[in-house]
Design brief:
Helix content is 36%, strand content 18%. By secondary structure, it is α/β, with parallel strands linked by helices. It has two domains: 111 residues, no CATH class; 239 residues, no CATH class. The two termini are 32 Å apart.
């Protein structure tokens, strides 16, 4: 018998977690999907969200709420299996991990349900690998000071992308002493010219927007970010810790605004490259709101000139023509020129590889 919609969405996320290197979360979500179908505590936790579409990532919201309990010492039995809290597990994951997870959800149901109200916000720094690559690609021949505006910026960590260190076989860019190290950033050559000195990026302005911005310097904000990092992915947690250290030293304001309203306040400026970028946020924006965003992006593109250029850089999922498959791709658009696909990557941004048209052009 097929699983109900919500259970099926959770099971699909379990598959994705396994493919992206989280056997713990794959195991827990497989069990959670069955628990939802059986009307258990996980069903109570997601009550009211049973018909939420896949992009709403209900499974990740559930995991985030539980992880926050683990990180704050309120789920000691489950913490024994969470590497992020000093626990450990062996493969196959012991059934006791699921027993502890289910009991934690049941005991802290109201807490977990509060996490269902907001989208996951890891502010994944690995995605900066794609965003900064797009900017380096555009700046290689005609570098200008940059005014950077990020949509769905969360805690604003990726507004500091130029302060991250990206490394790949045969090359690197970014400060050598950066606390954020994006290792194995590229399979093969990156999409910018790494065979010559990279341009020194100068930023004259950096701002972002988000409907629910996170203050990375507050204990509550840092907890939210850490809770959405998968518990058995220590390298992602280390990158986040490094980015939080950078955020404590460098200002990158994020306004509590929708994307369209934020863009209405942006204009091109003489002698600078105005850049709007975003990563894995499009799925959280309603279609009518996104239409307004596209109107504002078109306005900026139309206003651009050779001495006041505009660029739109995005790392988002695109559906492949003729299939249900989605690819996470880096696209760039300068002025009113057609959008170009530069690269592809796993959803968290590492590693990335140059786009091959033979792989199938994305649409949508």
């Amino acid at each position: 018998m097929p699983l109900p919609h919500a259970a099926a969405m959770i099971d699909q996320q379990a598959v994705a977690c396994g493919e992206l290197g989280s056997p713990l979360y794959e195991f827990l979500l497989r069990r959670a999907a069955l628990d939802v179908a059986a009307g258990g505590p996980c069903a109570a936790a997601i009550a009211g969200y049973e018909q939420a579409p896949g992009p709403d990532a209900i499974a990740l919201r559930l995991l985030g709420g539980v992880h926050a309990l683990v990180l704050t010492g309120r789920a000691p039995a489950l913490a024994a299996y969470y590497p992020s809290a000093g626990g450990e597990f062996t493969l196959p994951v012991p059934e006791a991990a699921w027993t502890a997870f289910r009991a934690t959800v049941a005991e802290h149901l109201d807490w977990v349900r509060t996490w269902l109200t907001r989208p996951p916000q890891t502010n994944e720094t690995g995605r900066a690998n794609l965003l900064i690559a797009g900017l380096l690609h555009l700046s290689a021949d005609a570098p200008l000071p940059v005014r950077l505006f990020e949509l769905g910026a969360s805690a604003g960590l990726n507004l500091l992308a130029d302060r991250f260190r990206c490394e790949w076989s045969g090359g690197a860019h970014g400060p050598a002493d950066s606390p954020v190290r994006l290792t194995d950033a590229w399979r093969g050559d990156p999409v910018f010219r790494s065979d010559r000195p990279l341009p020194d990026l100068e930023f004259t302005e950096r701002r972002g927007c988000d409907l629910t911005p996170i203050d990375p310097l507050s204990p509550e904000g840092a907890l939210a970010l850490r809770a959405y990092v998968w518990a058995d992915r220590p390298e992602r947690a280390a990158r986040l810790d490094g980015a939080l250290a950078l955020a404590a030293k460098h200002s990158a304001p994020v306004e509590r605004l929708g994307a369209a309203e934020f863009l209405r306040r942006v204009s091109v400026a003489e002698g600078t490259l105005t850049v709007v970028w975003h990563s894995i946020m499009r799925q959280y924006v309603p279609a009518d709101e996104w239409a307004l965003v596209e109107t504002e992006l078109a306005r900026l593109a139309d206003a651009a000139t050779p001495t006041a250029p505009f660029a739109h850089i995005a790392f988002e999922p695109h559906r492949v023509a003729g299939s249900d498959q989605r690819r996470f791709v880096l696209t760039v658009r300068t002025g009113t020129a057609p959008e170009r696909v530069l690269a592809e990557a796993v959803p968290h941004g590492l590693p990335a590889w140059a786009w091959s048209e033979q792989a199938g052009l994305p649409v949508g």
